[in-house]
Specification:
Mean pLDDT: 86
Structural class: alpha+beta
Helix content: 25-40%
Shape: elongated
Strand content: 15-25%
Number of helices: 20
Oligomer: single chain
Distance between the termini: 113 Å
Radius of gyration: 39 Å
Strand order of the largest sheet: 8-7-15-14-13
Length: about 750
């Protein structure tokens, strides 16, 4: 029996030693950071979630032990800490006697080392667990030394309100490093770990209890001659009058807070110092507040049209620093507000078009003076938002007017795969699917993207073709910028997007797209009015806005220009501080090596005073198009002088060369198609309500005459388009040859 008992005893000792060895490790959760905005105001802190859903903060390691904190802590928790090896026999005997004697005031026997063992492995306070904690405390002390164990205690000890560790508590309650705490503040904090709930300093009764215990700390320190009588008196007086500041509250921007949580947990942002893990973000809380108010205010005005959610990003143009981000109208506001719409993929509408133009310019496949056709033929079933066609247009006009047909034709010319991979290089998508699955509709919204991706990509246009990561904090590791476009292409597209005159006739002047300072802006509207976008950049910032619904439902004709652009305008004005009537003289820098010229809208040639409709364009000297000869000048009504002469019975036209050599000449009208129905836009300027007329002539002749409703209208070369001012009613179009009998079939057209 005795032998078996010894075996059982030995087995228990071995098991006890094994358990102690497993527990006797100094382990701590990773330190949790506190985040501040760019001006040093509290933004949030990222905590640790446990299985119960509780969030804890702190666990900051101490680079060195502050002597005053050590003295105050040991005065209350373990006065003979440096005199024992983890277990205090005197404290154990005292506690046992008080329990046996039934004394009203009882003291615990747990040492600092034993408390470390319990905090590292919290368990029920039973005698077996107490025995394990005692053994663990002894091994911890022998293995690591007294100072390491004490530093671990000061890292793990709870200081109330989710705070762990004296260093974190000093920042949370007093916003200062632990080394800067006064004796009164140290005494107060040292009192809390005994019972963080009862001595919660943010509650009146808890603060009162903590102050009472803090006075005990000061008395003990005075008895130990750690502080002088005068120092103790000053500290007692400060402690008596101590009022705790309110805990800083995170702003009304939960999506922003969750964004930073993910950036920290993913390692994108790493504090520079583990012992003081402070993160200095790029956010401007004042701007964040104003953007939130503006977004909610404008969204309220669009709710009747079916809009339910809004998202905004504001980024510094030069640095890429995120100044404000609004993920939705409110995390708890309903209508799927918990979704962060800056990180939700949606149809971008026309907001990808500038990149297609930039790529074509960069590849030498497009010049600013080329004419792009906004015509029904070759449109591959794609139309424009206004269901109209504006005819041949300069690239500046086609992009500024956001015409679908020229953009899709340009994408087809550049190549689907080339464009698809270029958009991926810009970070606008991360798809590996074939480009054919999207086709040319990539230009008008079939390729989904996110608001933050879009704003970053527009940064490449705003910064002369350099693409850089968005910056969220000073402590963020960013890749160096990469060149994705030439300076020439980026600046040309910027000039297109900032030209208010070029937006006519699709967008009226002096609306939300126009500013008293240089701003390049692009809007987008997805199919069925599900998404409305606007992205704009100035010399200071890039602002992106998305508007839509969480259920992917349709809105009532809310376009990017009529909604999102208005919010962008309000945010831009707020940032630039522009007052009514202010006009800035600045402009975006021009493309290097190009000359500013007036280009005729009819054919892309340099105007020598003979064209009635021109735009300013930037042209390379070696690509300068020929000037328009004076004899081609046309009046505001687009009817040429020779045609007027025919109609009036004036001088006859010179006889054309006999290009046809006497052969029959085949004439046909390629545009407009027979029985075309046209809806005239009464809101457009008269000069822009026009129909492009195109002819097909074989073999070639020098001139043809266009007839409208039986009357001569214009004389032109067969391959030169002519523009007829649209008029309501039924009309008949025909082309004839001067002084010959050949004529095309009559093409009827109906205008409403």
């Amino acid at each position: 029996m005795a032998f078996a008992a010894w075996h059982a005893f030995a087995a228990c000792i071995l098991l006890y030693a094994h358990l102690i060895n497993q527990r006797a490790q100094l382990i701590a959760p990773p330190p949790t950071p506190i985040l501040y905005d760019r001006a040093g105001a509290f933004l949030t802190q990222v905590g640790l979630d446990d299985e119960s859903g509780r969030v804890d903060y702190g666990y900051w390691p101490l680079e060195e032990l502050p002597d005053r904190v050590v003295r105050a802590t040991l005065a209350l928790e373990d006065r003979r800490f440096f005199d024992h090896a983890g277990v205090d026999p005197y404290a154990i005997a005292r506690a046992a006697w008080q329990n046996f004697d039934g004394a009203r005031r009882r003291s615990g026997a747990s040492t600092i080392a034993m408390q470390v063992a319990r905090m590292q492995r919290p368990e029920a306070r039973t005698w077996p667990n107490k025995v394990l904690e005692a053994g663990t405390g002894v091994v911890l002390t022998l293995r690591y030394g007294h100072e390491a164990v004490l530093a671990q205690y000061l890292r793990l000890a709870p200081y109330g309100n989710g705070s762990h560790g004296i260093a974190h508590a000093a920042r949370l309650y007093f916003d200062k490093p632990v080394a800067d705490l006064s004796w009164a503040e140290i005494a107060l904090l040292s009192a809390i770990p005994q019972s963080p709930t009862r001595m919660n300093p943010l509650r009146p009764d808890g603060l009162r209890r903590a102050i009472q215990r803090g006075h005990r700390v000061l008395d003990i320190l005075r008895e130990q001659e750690v502080i002088s009588t005068d120092e103790a008196a000053i500290a007692h007086n400060q402690l008596k009058r101590l009022r705790m500041p309110s805990l800083p509250h995170r702003p009304d921007a939960l999506h922003l807070v969750l964004r930073y949580r993910d950036l920290v947990r993913d390692g994108v942002i790493t504090p520079e110092a583990a012992n003081a893990p402070l993160i200095h973000t790029t956010i401007d809380l004042s701007l964040q507040t104003d953007v939130t108010k503006l977004a909610r205010q404008y969204l309220q005005g669009w709710r009747d049209a079916g809009a339910q959610q809004v998202a905004v990003m504001v980024v510094s143009r030069q640095t890429g620093e995120v100044l404000a981000q609004l993920g939705s109208s409110g995390y708890y506001a309903g209508h799927a507000g918990a979704f962060d719409y800056t990180r939700t993929q949606r149809s971008p509408g026309s907001t990808l078009k500038p990149f297609i133009y930039a790529l074509a310019l960069d590849r030498g496949m497009l010049k600013p003076t080329d004419m792009l056709l906004d015509l029904p033929e070759g449109a591959s079933g794609i139309g424009n938002a206004d269901r109209e066609f504006l005819g041949p247009m300069l690239p500046r006009q086609a992009l500024a007017n956001s015409r679908n047909v020229p953009a899709t034709n340009l994408l087809r010319s550049v190549g689907l795969e080339t464009t698809f991979h270029f958009l991926r290089d810009l970070g606008l998508h991360d798809l590996e699917t074939p480009a054919d699955s999207f086709g040319v509709s990539m230009a008008i919204g079939s390729l989904p993207t996110r608001l933050d991706w879009l704003v970053r990509a527009y940064g490449a246009l705003a910064n002369d073709g350099q693409l850089q990561d968005l910056a969220w904090a000073r402590e963020q590791r960013r890749r160096p910028p990469v060149r994705v476009l030439s300076v020439d292409s980026a600046r040309l597209v910027t000039s297109f997007l900032s030209d208010a005159q070029a937006r006519l006739p699709s967008f009226h002047r002096y609306g939300a797209l126009e500013y008293p300072f240089p701003v390049a802006i692009k809007t987008g509207t997805s199919q069925g009015y599900r998404d409305a976008w606007a992205v704009a950049y100035s010399d200071k910032v890039i602002v992106g806005v998305w508007l839509g619904r969480g259920d992917d439902g349709t809105m009532n004709r809310l376009t990017g220009a009529s909604s999102a652009a208005q919010l962008v305008h309000a945010i831009m004005v707020r940032i630039h501080g522009i007052k009514p009537g202010d006009i800035a003289e600045a402009r975006f820098p021009p493309p290097p090596g190009r000359k500013q010229v007036d280009v005729c809208l009819l054919n892309g040639q340099v105007d020598a005073g003979a064209c009635s409709q021109t735009l300013v364009e930037w042209v390379r000297p070696d690509e300068m198009p020929m000037a328009i000869p004076a004899n081609l000048r046309s009046g505001a009504d687009t009817v040429s002088a020779p045609v007027k002469a025919i109609a009036a019975g004036g001088p006859t036209l010179p006889r054309p060369d006999a290009d046809g050599g006497g052969q029959p000449i085949r004439l046909s009208i390629s545009t407009p198609a027979r029985n075309t129905q046209i809806w005239r836009n009464p809101e457009q300027p008269t000069a822009y309500n026009r129909l492009a007329l195109k002819a097909s002539v074989e073999p070639h002749v020098a001139q043809i005459v266009w007839y409208v409703d039986g009357q001569p209208f214009a004389v032109s070369a067969p391959d030169q388009p002519v523009f007829w001012p649209i008029q309501p009613g039924a009309h008949r179009f025909q082309i004839r040859l001067p002084y010959r009998d050949e004529a095309s079939s009559v093409v009827p057209v109906y205008v409403q």
